[in-house]
Amino acid sequence: MNIDQSKPLLETRGLTKRFGAFVANHAIDLVVYAGEVHAILGENGAGKSTLMKSLYGFHQPSAGEIWLKGQPVTIPSPETGRQLGIGMVFQNFTLIPAMTALENIALFLPDMRGRLNYAAIEKRVQALSERYGLPLDLRRRVGALAIGERQRLEILKVLLSDARILIFDEPTSVLAPQEVEGFFQVIQRLKADGYAILFITHKLPEVMAIADRITVLRHGAVAGLLLRAEATPAGIIRLMLGKTPPQPTERKVHAPEIDQPNHSARTARAELRGVTVLPQGGGVQLTAINLQLFGGEIVGVAGVSGNGQREIGDALLGLLPLAQGERWIAGQEASFWSPARIRTSGVACIPEDVLQMGAIRGMTVAENMILGEQARYGMVGGAVMNWPRVQIAAERALSQVFAAKSPRLDALVETLSGGNLQRVVVAREVGRQPKVLLAYYPARGLDVANAEAMRQLLLRCQSEGAGILFFSEDMEELFALSDRLLVLYHGRIVGNLSRSEFDVHRVGHLMTGGQSS
Amino acid sequence: MTTEQRVLLPNNVEDIFTVVFVPVIRTIAMLLFALIAFGLVLLLFGKNPLQAYSDIFRNTLGSRYAFSEVLVKLIPLLLCALAVLLPARLGLVNVGGEGQIYLGAWLATWGALSFGDLPRPLALTAVLVLGFVGGGLWAAIPAFLRARGWLNEVISTLLLNYVAIQFINYFIFGAWRDPESANFPQTVKFADSYRLPQFSDTRVHLGLLLGLLAALLIFLVLRYTRWGYAMRAIGGNPEAALRHGFPITRYLILSMVIAGGLAGLAGVGEVMAIQGRLRPAFSPGYGYVGFLISWLAGHSPMGAVGMAFLLAIIALGGDTLQITQNVPFSTVNILMALILFVVLGDFFRSKKV
Which residues pair with A65 in a beta bridge? Predict the structure, then answer.
């Protein structure tokens, strides 16, 4: 390691970033030297991306300072960040598919002129490409390039803009396993030439393979700084997930205990049998998913987000075609049922993004409360909506969830706060007394008291007999509520644990790609 | 109105003032701007704008006959506006009103030419149904392509307009050509039983009632029925609608077919009531003006009636200017373009109409 410990290239001092009342980054001290690979590790929502966005000028810190080569700097925009030598390597989003690789690079040059000298640019790119082992056909259209090639193009783009600090955000998530090796060699060469590399990830094996130093973030703050030599996977997981093992005794309402071995004798409320779903538009492929959900149980789903959580729900809701396998609802094969039929047979869903997936902008709260159930509020032969009845039903459902003050029924949903909107959607879905409830991060965006109320609500649903598939990234919440726990990794179920097997390290190990021991 | 403004306002204040007065005042201001700018254009031509506007007034609202002519113009404009409005509520952009007019007229003409002299009620029903079906089927093509996710409807509806015009020309210049009118490519005159009923001594015809009825019906359906609720849900957030089991494909296709049918009725009106025979290029762009009207009205059915009335006055005003001020008819396109300009400017400012 040729780290020049005497002079940090980049440094943050007490960097804090708030969004309203939410603190995304709290007093982060980070020191990055030239010629090191510095991994930033943390669960989703730990504040990694926010921190990086502050560094390259996308966000403005609420407090604290950024120091560059021993000087305090402000980075008001990504352009300034680039001028200061801080480059962000994006995965997909900044390339223009209709243009060639060379044209894409030329567009990004800091010294772009009115008339482009492509030959000169090509020469410069080729020199870099050979030096760092980034082979690329510059004349091809980006649309025709594979993902790995696009990533090389992104790296070349950033290198050509004279960046000295390179930020990689989950760079290996888009690469096939055999490509990762080549990518690491590129990183090694860049490091040898004195580039400082910030490497954001939540994959432990990669961190152990490539990083010199590791900063672990948890809940927006630095949980620890480790040298690779002294780091162990177990130690890192402990930092990522918190030191105190969660208390599985927090359940205040106990469901009737379900005897696991007897499951086979009962009919599952919802079931996926050997389901494979092909990836759709940036989604994840589900492979050989076997999942059974019985009445009166809460099945927790653990996993880093983007590992198939959304796809499992969509497969159950009939929104994705099954490439293989079968879907069963209440003892009937439902592989070809429409989403409407699945919903009306008692499947409800609290989606991960309530405004985008669960509410109609431009409609009132009352109108949103009957979404998908409009057929039940007809009069005059079902054609004309009975709005007064909608009003009464909406009011009743809302009062179940809003202990104190519920939002006005005639308020447009887009005017509600995030928490209130969340509760409106929860009230709607729970109010339908579902047989199966898919609950995505139901306590997200709620304050502590309301989050606890939300958990109690789930337990109430369970005690009333609903089968609940509970998606969460909060390990404590998962352990507290779940009867069983499924662990998702890369679209596969890699763990199916009963309550006695709940263990934070084991789950953390499984969800970051470790093998089941 | 921007979302920020909406958030700041308590819900009860929003009612009368912001919903009624602000849009009305803004609309008037936009139209005034367009009129003044157009006045400058007339000045450039060496014409007197005030004289021009007073001529327009005299020939549109100044007499009973003039007013009836405004209504005659209003009929196709209103129907075409509704043909844009209904799909727009689902998030679809139907630029194909023009082609749908022609195909409606084409199928109605086919009926009138092939069925011969039918009893009047039967003849009228036949051409109205055929006109609706013709426009509807023409619109079904882009609707289907869009529902399958194969082709964006903006492109397909627009391009099919040109196909439609050539398609009916093929018949007018060919099999259907009236041998007795050697110099004018056109069909023979339809039997009298196909003529749409007209009001007293004016050219205002049954289409006016159909248009107003359609506007009222669309208004009621959107506001009070289950289907209207579904349409608003799909238009408001297709993803959430899909996730809650709304049959989006069915609604997309159905709304486009009905829209095409309404434009087709506009074609029937022009051919069966005004012209009495099928001629090439009988529509001076009603489909496109209808598009303008629907956007001007914020896709509100009742607003479309008002806007169609206004645009009918402007279109008729163009005819007037041509005669009294001796400027080319296309001059009035400048006025329409100016209006479109201010409306679109407003649209892009607020991102929500």
Answer: A13
pLDDT (tens digit per residue) in A144-163:
787 778 888 888 888 888 88
- CB contact under 8 Å between A340 and B3, yes or no, is no
Residues whose CB is less than 8 angstroms from the CB of residue A234 and which lie 6 or more positions away in sequence, other chains included: A505
Q: Which of B226, B236, B242 is opposite residue A362, by nearest beta carbon?
A: B236
All residues at 6 or more sequence positions from A277 whose CB lies less than 8 Å from its CB, including other chains = A285, A286, A289, A311, A314, A315, A320, A321, A322, A323
Q: What is the pLDDT of residues B187-213, one digit of tens each?
A: 999 999 999 999 888 999 999 999 999
Q: Which residues of B touch A414 (CB under 8 A)?
A: 3, 6
The predicted complex's ipTM stands at 0.77
User: Is some CB atom of chain B closer than 8 A to the CB atom of A267?
Assistant: no
**Residues whose CB falls within 8 Å of the CB of residue A367, separated by 6 or more in sequence, listed in order:** A360, A390, B229, B232
Of A372, A377, A408, nearest to B245 by CB-CB distance is: A372
Burial B118-134 (b: 16+ CB within 10 A, else e): beeeebbebbbbbbbbb
Burial B276-299 (b: 16+ CB within 10 A, else e): bbbbeebbebbbbbbbbbbbbbbb
Task: Answer for the pair B132, B207: CB distance below 8 angstroms, yes or no.
Answer: no
CA atoms within 13 A on the CB side of A132: 27
Residue A493 bridge partners (DSSP): A488
Contact in structure between A494 and A516 (CB atoms under 8 Å)? yes
**By the 8 A CB rule, do A2 and A164 touch?**
no
Q: Does the CA dihedral A230-A236-A238-A239 come out positive or negative?
A: positive
CA dist B266 → B69, B98, B198, B332 (Å): 16, 10, 15, 22
CB nearest A357 (choices: B230, B239, B247): B239
Dihedral sign of CA atoms B310, B312, B318, B323 in order:
negative
| A30 contact partners, CB below 8 Å, separation of at least 6 | A10, A11, A12, A15, A38, A51, A215, A222
For chain B, what is the mean pLDDT? 88
3-state SS class at A493: strand
Q: Does residue B60 surpass a pLDDT of 60?
A: yes
Residue A128's H or E segment, with its range, is helix A118-132
**Which residues of B, range 209-268, sit inside 8 Å of A by Cβ?**
224-230, 232-233, 236-237, 239-247
A window 302-341, beta carbon within 8 A of B: 317, 319, 338-341
- Sheet strands (E) in A257-370: 270-277, 286-293, 298-302, 324-329, 332-333, 347-350
Summarize pLDDT for A414-454 with one digit per residue, the tens. Answer: 888 777 888 899 999 998 899 999 999 887 766 666 778 88
Q: Give whole-number Cα distances, B272 to A376, B82, B102, in Å.
A: 44, 20, 13
d(CA A56, CA A79): 8
Can you read off the two tokens belonging to residue B239? Answer: 């993803």
Asked if residues A104 and A95 have their Cβ atoms less than 8 Å apart, the reply is yes
CA atoms within 13 A on the CB side of A457: 27
CA-to-CA dists, residue A103 to A143, A247, A417, angstroms: 13, 56, 44
Are residues A220 and A24 in contact, defined by beta-carbon separation less than 8 angstroms?
yes
Chains A, B: CB contacts under 8 A, how many?
Answer: 79
A173 token code pair? 């998530």
A289-348 residue pLDDT tens: 999 999 999 999 998 777 888 899 999 999 999 999 999 999 999 999 999 999 999 999
A86 within 8 A of A162, measured Cβ to Cβ? no
CA A389 – CA B222 distance, rounded (Å): 18
Chain B residues in contact with A356 (beta carbon < 8 A): 237, 239-240
Write the single-letter amino acid at A164: R
Alpha-carbon separation of residue A384 from A348, B1, B230, B293, B301 (angstroms) = 25, 30, 12, 28, 18
